[in-house]
């Protein structure tokens, strides 16, 4: 094993003009200068109650802002999900109508109330239920021209989302 000498660029004793050197039986020690009344100056060793309370107040304000932001993000995500589901339900109904024969698409208004929407539609009974949505389908004859039917599907969610989609069916 090879031992290398330890290189030192700094002296072992720091230089500080405020410290005075005292020689005691061959050893050199450094002591802080004495105050006029014999007391030594001491740095504070802890925090005061005021400092702790101010720090806690800052942390409370910061935490309240973060909590408010998190709640707003969660609400926005829930509303976005409700809108996406409403679009899906409206397009599903339009596809169902588009796949029917022109003569079987009858004019009128159909309302599927909250808790009654199932996809895929009957006769399949294992479809997914959507209890928080209401779907209204309006079919108008001879609109926009003779021999055409305008189909408008509107889906409402309990979270306040509303989506409306339409198609024109012709023979």
Short description, anyone?
This protein is an alpha+beta fold and 171 residues long.
What is the strand and helix layout of this fold?
Elements (H helix, E strand, L loop, with lengths): L19 E5 L2 E5 L17 H50 L9 E5 L5 E2 L8 E2 L3 E9 L6 E10 L4 E9 L1
Antiparallel strand pairs: 1-2, 3-6, 4-5, 6-7, 7-8
Structure description:
The chain has a single domain (49-170), classed as Pantoate--beta-alanine Ligase, Chain: A,domain 2 (2-Layer Sandwich). The strands form three sheets. The protein has a four-stranded antiparallel sheet with strand order 3-6-7-8, with helices on one face. It has a two-stranded antiparallel ribbon with strand order 1-2. It has one helix at residues 49-98, and strands spanning 20-24, 27-31, 108-112, 118-119, 128-129, 133-141, 148-157, 162-170. The protein is rod-shaped. The longest helix has 50 residues, at 49-98. The mean pLDDT is 83. The N and C termini lie far apart (97 Å). Helices cover 29% and strands 27% of the residues. The chain is an alpha+beta fold and 171 residues long. The protein has one helix and eight strands; from the N terminus they run ββαββββββ.
